[in-house]
Amino acid sequence: MKIIQYKDKKPVIKEDVYGFDSTVIIGDVYIASHVFLLPNIVIRGDLNKILIDEYTNIQDGTVIHTDSNFSTTIGKRVTCGHNVILHGCIVDDDVLLGMGCIVLNGAHIPSKVIIAAGSLIGQNKTLESGYLYAGIPARKVRALVDQDYKYIEQANRIYIDLKQNYQNGSI
Fold first, then answer.
1. Cα–Cα distance measured from residue 128 to residue 117, given in angstroms and rounded to the nearest whole number
2. Distance set, CA 41 to CA 37, 83, 97, 129, 169 (Å)
3. What does the pLDDT read at residue 171?
4. Which helix (H) or strand (E) is 79 found in, with range?
5. Does residue 147 sit in helix, strand or coil?
6. Most buried residue among 31, 32, 159, 168 by CB atoms closer than 10 A?
7. Could you give the domains of the chain?
8. What is the pLDDT of residue 63?
């Protein structure tokens, strides 16, 4: 990982975080234990702070940024698919963000939500827990069922297991 201080702000990253060399982390960023950062991620806390909580995986090509009025917070056990953009938003625990989705300033995704690939969560939009959202702009598609909750957990577990394999050199 490339760790860059911005002004007086230097990223704080727990020892057991695993990130690829192509991951760039800048400024006021805190990354908790057991986080997995895949290739070509940019986490840029130059305008405001970014928090990534435990057991979260951020997949290839994702960009996480802030705005001067909006920090970014990502909860525990979040699966953030490939090429996601998170900008000045809050994502609570146990969320699955599909590939290529975009979440804008002031948006809030509560726990136990699935965002479909390619969806757009607009500025200042607050979603409701327990639903699948899809589209541009994203709208409720249906309530989550037991199989969906298991999928959120399984997707996260797969990536946390991958992290362990990379850390242990068993790839």
1. 18
2. 7, 9, 15, 27, 21
3. 57
4. strand 79-80
5. helix
6. 31
7. 2-168 (2.160.10.10)
8. 99
In the three-class reduction of DSSP (H, G, I as helix; E, B as strand; rest coil), residue 167 is classed as helix
Residues pairing with 121 in the sheet? 103
Encoding tokens for residue 126? Answer: 């607050």
Backbone angles phi, psi at 98, to 5 degrees: -65, 160
| Rounded Cα distance, 40 and 4, in Å | 15
Tell me the residue length of the chain: 171
pLDDT tens by residue, 129-152: 999 999 999 999 999 999 999 999
Cβ-proximal residues to 70 (8 Å cutoff; 6+ apart), any chain? 48, 87, 88, 89, 105, 106
Cβ neighbours around 80 below 10 Å, total: 29
61 CB-near residues (< 8 Å, 6+ apart): 39, 40, 41, 82, 83
Q: Residue 124 CB: number of other CB atoms within 10 A?
A: 12
Give the pLDDT means over successive 10-residue stretches in the chain (171 positions). Answer: 98 97 98 98 98 98 98 99 99 99 99 99 98 98 98 97 90 57
What type of residue sits at position 84?
A: V
